[in-house]
Design goal:
Elements (H helix, E strand, L loop, with lengths): L22 E9 L7 E9 L6 E5 L20 E6 L2 E6 H13 L32 H4 L17 H13 L1 E3 L1 H4 L5 H17 L2 E5 L7 H21 L1 H5 L8 H7 L1 H20 L7 H6 L8 E4 L2 E3 L3 H11 L3 H10 L6 H7 L28 H16 L9 H4 L2 H8 L17 H15 L64 E4 L4 E11 L18 H7 L11 E2 L4 E2 H9 L13 H19 L7 H6 L1 H6 L8 H12 L6 H5 L12 E5 L5 E5 L7 E5 L6 E5 L5 H4 L1 E7 L1 E2 L10 H5 L2 E5 L1
Parallel strand pairs: 2-4, 3-6, 3-7, 7-8, 18-20
Antiparallel strand pairs: 1-2, 4-5, 8-9, 10-11, 11-16, 11-20, 12-13, 14-15, 15-19, 16-17, 17-18
Helix pairs in contact: 6-9, 6-11, 8-9, 14-16, 20-23
Pfam family, one: HET
Protein name: Heterokaryon incompatibility protein-domain-containing protein
Organism: Lasiosphaeria hispida
C-alpha cells in the first residue's frame, strides 16, 4: 500500500496521552510521495508487556558528526517536519536521514519492498585481497574467526543471522525517543525515562545509527581486514607475546606473522580510522550507554550510511590495545596530531566497560573497596558499584546535565536488582535543578555505601561546578584515572586504608553525618591533625603533562629532596628516599614489592622516565642539553633515589639507538602505582609528614581525619566572621599522609578533639 494523504498542516503534532501503566508508543514508516521527505509515520500505543516485536533506535538528536576533532558542542540542530498520523512532527536531520534510509530499504515499513536490507557482515572489498593473506594459516592459528577478546564478548553474525535480521527489519516496529515520547510533556518524559532501561531490554534488538555518511576507506580496511587478522594472531600468540610489540607494529616478528603489507597499511590507516570514530557524536552521548549495554554483542545492528558494521570489531580492537598497553601511547600520538584533547576518553568510550559491571548475585558482585567489609553488606556493595558507574558516565555528554543521573537510572536499577532502590525520580521541572539532583544523589551514596568514599570524587582538574557544595561531586565532569580514590588504585588493587578506624565503629556511620541548610551543608565529625605550609621548597609542581615527562621530573627531582636535617622518616622508620617513593606510590605496591626492591625500582623508574622522554619527545624542554644544565641540582639529590648522570646518558643513548623503548618504563613494577603525581603534589607538612596533596592546595589548608572517611581530607576554612563561620570549611580533596593511613593518628588524645564540622 502506498499512502497518498495530503501534505500535513503546519500545526504541531498533538500526542494522545499515554494510557496508565507501562505504556509506550511504537512507529511504522510508509512511503508517501505527497508528504515532506516522501514518508509518513504511523504512531500507535501498546503496553510494554504486549507490544509487538520492535527494535529500539540508538542515535544522536543533533548532528551525526562533530564539526572538528575538538568540537564537543551540538551547535544549532537542524530540524525538519515529517507527517505523523496526519499531523506535522518535527524531527532532527539525523533522525530524518535514518527514516529515509529505512524507507528506501524497506525497514520498519507498512509497505516493505521485496529487497535485501542488511549487507553481509564480511564486507571486504577485492582491493584488499593482497593485504589479507596471513603468513600463519588460519588452520595453524587454531582460532575460530568468530572468537572475540575480553569480557562481554560474543560471536559475530553469520549468514543465517543476517537472513533472520533482514526479516526482522522488514516486519518489526520501531521505537525512537524523539518520535515516541512527547518531549513537551515533562510528566511523560519522567515516566518514559523511568521505563527507558526496560524499553531497551524489551526490544528485540537495538539498532545503532552513526549517521548518513558511509565510513572512509581507511576505517573499512581496519574494520574488515585488520581487526580480524590481529584478533587471530593475538589469540594464537597470546597476550604476553604482544605486550612486547610496538603499537605501530614495527617489529620483524609481527610483520612475519601478519604480513608486511598489513603492518604498513595499519600504520597509514589507524589515525584516520580513529579520527573517523572520534568525530562520531554517538560515541560521546550518554544515553547510548544504557541503550546497548544490556544486550549481547551479536544482537546489536550498526548502520553507518548504507554500510552495516559488525558491533564487535571496534571493542575487540580496544580490548587488544588495552591488553598490549598500546592505548596510552596511541592517545599521545593522536593528541600530537592536534584536536585530540579528549583522546583518552574518546578511545575509552569505544569500549563499554559498564557491561562488565552489570553482574548479578552476591557471589559475582566483586567490589574491591567493600570486599573487606564483609559479605553481609550486600546493599553497600551494590551502591559502591553505582558510584563507579556514575564516575564512568561523567566522560559522556548529555544536553541536560541532570541526565548524567537520569540517563543512568536504567543501569543503576539493574545493578541494585529488585531488593534495593535509588530514589531519584527523573523530574525535569525547575525545582529539580542540577545542583539539587547531584546533591540528592550524593546524599544517597553517603547513606548507603560502607564509608564516605564518594567525597573523594568531589575535585577535578577544572574544579567543581561553582554552584555545587564542595562535598558534592560534579557528575557531569570527567575525572581522569588519576582522580580515582586513593583506596581503589584505579579499580585494580584493593588498598584497605582506614585512617579514621571507621571499620571499628560498632554502630555504623549513621551518627557521623547530617545534611542541613536545605541540602547545602554536610555536617561531619572529625579533628585536624596537621596543616600544609605556606610554601614547600621541594614539592612536586603540577605540570599539564603525563607522569612520565621530563618536565614533571625536573619539577622536583632537581631539588634537594626533604633537606639534610634527617636521614630517617620517623613515622615509619624508613630512609627518606624510600619514604618519598612510597608516598609517590601512595603505598599501592607495599604488599607486592619487597622493601629492599623499592629503591632499586625507583632509581630505574626515574632513569627511564628521563631517557624515554628525551628520546621520544624532541623539543627544547626535552634534550640532553637541558639535562646537562640541570646536572648540578641532579647531583645534589640522594644517590639512593636518583641515578648518576652517566647512567642516565647511557639510557638515553640506548633509547635513541633503539636498544630500549617505553616497554622498560611499563615493565617497571612502579608504573601501575605512580599515577597520582599528575593531579597531586608531593608536599612536606608543617609537622614534617610526607603527603600527596591535591594539586590546588594552598598554605594553611588543614588535614583532617573525618569519622566515616577511610582516608584523610584536606579542608579549607571558609572566609567570614562570627561563630557560624568558625566551623565552616570546603573540601579541597583527599590526602595521602605516609605513615598515618591505618589508624596510627586515631589516638585517645585526638579522639578528645573530635568535633562537628560543616562542609559547604
Amino acid at each position: 500500500m502506498m499512502l497518498t494523504a495530503p501534505p500535513p498542516e503546519n500545526s504541531a503534532y498533538q500526542y494522545e496521552p499515554l494510557a496508565p501503566g507501562r505504556s509506550i508508543r511504537l512507529v511504522k514508516i510508509a512511503h508517501d510521495v505527497n508528504s515532506p521527505n516522501g514518508l509518513s509515520l504511523r504512531l500507535q500505543q501498546f503496553s510494554l508487556e504486549q507490544a509487538p516485536p520492535f527494535h529500539a533506535l540508538s542515535y544522536t538528536w543533533g548532528h551525526a558528526d562533530f564539526e572538528g576533532l575538538a568540537d564537543e558542542d551540538d551547535g544549532v540542530v537542524t530540524t525538519t517536519e515529517v507527517d505523523c498520523n496526519g499531523q506535522a512532527l518535527s524531527v532532527g536531520a539525523n533522525l530524518r536521514d535514518f527514516l529515509c534510509r529505512a524507507r528506501d530499504s524497506g525497514r520498519y515499513c507498512i509497505d516493505s519492498p521485496d529487497q535485501p536490507v542488511a549487507t553481509t557482515p564480511e564486507r571486504t572489498s577485492s582491493k584488499y585481497t593482497s593485504d589479507t593473506n596471513l603468513t600463519v594459516p588460519t588452520t595453524e592459528l587454531g582460532v575460530n574467526p568468530s572468537q572475540v577478546v575480553g569480557p562481554g564478548s560474543a560471536r559475530e553474525l553469520g549468514a543465517n543471522d543476517v537472513a533472520a535480521i533482514n526479516d526482522e527489519l522488514r516486519s518489526c516496529w520501531l521505537w525512537a525517543d524523539a518520535i515516541c515520547i512527547d518531549q513537551s510533556n515533562d510528566g511523560e518524559r519522567t515516566h518514559q525515562v523511568q521505563l527507558m532501561g526496560a524499553i531497551y531490554r524489551a526490544a528485540k534488538r537495538p539498532v545503532v545509527w552513526l549517521g548518513d555518511n558511509d565510513p572512509p576507506e581507511d576505517f573499512m580496511w581496519v574494520h574488515d581486514v585488520f581487526v580480524p587478522a590481529l584478533d587471530k594472531a593475538f589469540n594464537k600468540m597470546g597476550r604476553q607475546w604482544f605486550e612486547n610489540t610496538r603499537f605501530d607494529l614495527r617489529d620483524d616478528r609481527v610483520e612475519a606473522l601478519l604480513s608486511t603489507a598489513i603492518c604498513e597499511r595499519w600504520r597509514r590507516s589507524w589515525i584516520p580510522c580513529f579520527n573517523f570514530l572520534r568525530r562520531k557524536r554517538w560515541y560521546s552521548r550518554g544515553w547510548v550507554v544504557q541503550e546497548v549495554v544490556f544486550r549481547d554483542s551479536n544482537q546489536i545492528i550498526v548502520f553507518c550510511g548504507e554500510t552495516n558494521l559488525q558491533w564487535t570489531r571496534i571493542p575487540r580492537l580496544i580490548n587488544i590495545m588495552n591488553a598490549c598497553n598500546w592505548r596510552t601511547i596511541m592517545n599521545d600520538v593522536l593528541i600530537s596530531h592536534g584536536g585530540w584533547s579528549s583522546a583518552e576518553s574518546a578511545i575509552s568510550r569505544l569500549h563499554l566497560s559498564i557491561r562488565r559491571w552489570l553482574l548479578f548475585g552476591a557471589d559475582r558482585l566483586h567490589l574491591p573497596i567493600s570486599e573487606a567489609e564483609g559479605p553481609e553488606l550486600e546493599e553497600a556493595r551494590r551502591f559502591e558499584k553505582v558510584l563507579r558507574v556514575l564516575m564512568h558516565m561523567a566522560s559522556y555528554s548529555f544536553t541536560d546535565a541532570r541526565d548524567h543521573i537520569y540517563g543512568t537510572l536504567g543501569i543503576i536499577q539493574v545493578i541494585l536488582g529488585n531488593e534495593f532502590t535509588f530514589d531519584i525520580p527523573p523530574v525535569y521541572d525547575s525545582a529539580h535543578t542540577v545542583e539539587s539532583v547531584f546533591a540528592a544523589t550524593t546524599a544517597i551514596l553517603l547513606q548507603k555505601m560502607p564509608s564516605f568514599d564518594v567525597l573523594a570524587y568531589s575535585h577535578t582538574l577544572s574544579g567543581p561546578r561553582k554552584t555545587l557544595p564542595s562535598w558534592v561531586p560534579d557528575y557531569s565532569r570527567e575525572k581522569s584515572r588519576a582522580f580515582d580514590s586513593y583506596r581503589t588504585a584505579h579499580g585494580r588493587i584493593q588498598v584497605n586504608f582506614d585512617a579514621a578506624l571507621t571499620s571499628l565503629n560498632p554502630n555504623g556511620k549513621q551518627d557521623f553525618f547530617n545534611i542541613i541548610n536545605q541540602g547545602k551543608t554536610l555536617v561531619l565529625k572529625g579533628a585536624c591533625f596537621d596543616r600544609l605550609p605556606a610554601y614547600s621548597s621541594w614539592h612536586a609542581c603540577y605540570q599539564s603533562c603525563s607522569t612520565a615527562s621530563l618536565k614533571w621530573g625536573f619539577g622536583w627531582l632537581t631539588r634537594r629532596l626533604y633537606g639534610d636535617s634527617s636521614d630517617v622518616y620517623k613515622p615509619t622508620n624508613e630512609s627518606v628516599p624510600e619514604a618519598i617513593l612510597r608516598t609517590l606510590m601512595t603505598d599501592f605496591a607495599s604488599q607486592l614489592l619487597p622493601r629492599d626492591a623499592i629503591l632499586t625500582h625507583g632509581r630505574q623508574w626515574f632513569k627511564t622516565i628521563i631517557a624515554n622522554t628525551i628520546s621520544s619527545r624532541p623539543s627544547s624542554d626535552y634534550t640532553t642539553a637541558a639535562l646537562r644544565n640541570n646536572a648540578g641540582t641532579l647531583q645534589q639529590c640522594d644517590p639512593r633515589l636518583v641515578p648518576p648522570l652517566s647512567e642516565i646518558f647511557a639510557a638515553v643513548d640506548a633509547h635513541v639507538d633503539g636498544a630500549a623503548d617505553v616497554r622498560e618504563l611499563r615493565d617497571n613494577p612502579l608504573f601501575e602505582y605512580m599515577q597520582f603525581p599528575v593531579t597531586s603534589n608531593l608536599v612536606a607538612t608543617k609537622k614534617g609528614n610526607l603527603c600527596m596533596a591535591p594539586w590546588n592546595w594552598v598554605g594553611g589548608d588543614e588535614i583532617w581525619l573525618l569519622k566515616g572517611c577511610k582516608t584523610p581530607f584536606l579542608l579549607r576554612k571558609v572566609a567570614g566572621s562570627g561563630k557560624r563561620a568558625k566551623n565552616r570549611y570546603r573540601i579541597v580533596g583527599e590526602v595521602y599522609v605516609h605513615g598515618f593511613m591505618h589508624g596510627e593518628m586515631m589516638t585517645p588524645q585526638l579522639e578528645k578533639r573530635i568535633r562537628r564540622v560543616g562542609i559547604t
